[in-house]
Amino acid sequence: MDDGGTIIYLERLDDAQIGSQEVSIEKALTALKFKRPSKAFEDQVTAGRTALIKLPGALPVEGGIPLMADGRVIGVSGGSSQQDAQVAHAGVTALEALLKAGSK
User: What whole-number distance in Å separates Cα of residue 76 and Cα of residue 94?
Assistant: First the structure.
């Protein structure tokens, strides 16, 4: 997603369930809109703050991670909650390496 929530790239693997596509979009939007990992909302709901379930645009499920690029936030999501978190953190590492290489 870009910083306005428009999907830039979306790919669904052949055997992936159709419902996962919508969930991945919502996790990415959550990270984008609130500039924090969607797991932050999951943790709060797990801790008993169930009112967050009704927060518009916040899916309290791990996997959406905000990535910063040139001062803009972009969203990332796609697999299971744990896979999304791993992929997103790998993206953060790769983005940081690119930015570091570009500043030299």
Answer: 13
- Amino acid at site 58: A
pLDDT digits (tens, 9 = 90+) for 22-61: 888 898 899 889 989 999 999 999 999 999 999 999 999 9
Alpha helices in the chain (DSSP H): 18-34, 38-46, 81-102
Q: What is the pTM of this model?
A: 0.73
Q: Which domains does the chain have, with CATH numbers?
A: 20-102 (3.30.450.150)
Residue with tokens 């939007």: 29
Q: 89 with 95: CB under 8 angstroms?
A: no
CA distance 78 to 7: 12
Q: Coil, strand or helix: which one is 72?
A: strand
